[in-house]
Write a structure and sequence with these properties.
This protein is of the alpha/beta class. It has one domain (about 1-265): Alpha-Beta Barrel (TIM Barrel), CATH 3.20.20. The chain is built from eleven helices and eight strands. It has an eight-stranded parallel β-barrel, surrounded by seven helices. The radius of gyration is 17 Å and the shape is globular. The protein starts with 6 loop residues before the first helix and ends with a helix. The structure holds 5-bromo-uridine-5'-monophosphate.
Length: about 270
Amino acid sequence: MSSHLTYSERARYCISTTGQRLLLLLDNKKTNLALSADVTKADELLVLADTLGPEICIFKTHIDIIQDFTPALTSELHKLARKHQFLLFEDRKFADIGNTVKHQYEDGIYRIAEWADIINAHSLPGPSVVKGLAESGRKYNRGLLLINELSSAKNLIDEKYQQQTLAMAEPYADFVIGFITQHAVSSDPHWINMTPGIKFHEKGDTLDQQYISPEQAILEKNTDIIIVGRGIYGADQPLSAAKEYREAGWSAYKQRTSHKKLASTV
Ligand code: 5BU
């Protein structure tokens, strides 16, 4: 299992430069917290990026829920990403034939390929979705996450689907950096596993979201990055909430890597 390795140790195994950059950033900045910034106003999104930026490794957007979107928003986000050293992840969940996803990635009003370091896709359409996205993504040196598992109750993904998702990722390791998943997909150290559906003290919401804790994700399920939305931006004090999730995620990671190191010395 590679879960005892530190993020920076695992960076050496990456073929993708985005994957490598992210793994190094995690250890340098000492945070494995991604913020899911699901607000609907441009100014709210920018305030979240600026105030919570120092706490996070990734700022995850759903750019199509912004009511007052203009291209200036993504260039401002890009500036904040540089200022606070985090990556931008557009949670677009592409799921169409190669030719269509390529246009959805590069064109339209959002021009996602121009500003998002990371995107994700459903593996449902088969390799064409990865092939289509890779044509644009490679030009911009971006990273793709395949959706291996969902956090919503009674979703249709089964084990066979997950095995096929991993097999689909393998030939594209220069572009696919890992998975959105509820548990570590493989012991290959270069795959990065990110987990949404994280919240303290709550098991779910009224629309079938299911939550686990940062410790469950990092220690029990061996995933690498916790993605938190309402637990942070919905809190009375988002900055202190972000610090709490950051601390929980980071100490779970420290525990995981130190445990295994001790185990390997005996
Ligand atoms: P929450 O507020 O922490 O519940 O938000 C979770 C975010 O992660 C939200 O943007 C979802 O679209 C996203 N998500 C998820 O919750 N579960 C999944 O399986 C996937 C994405 Br894939």
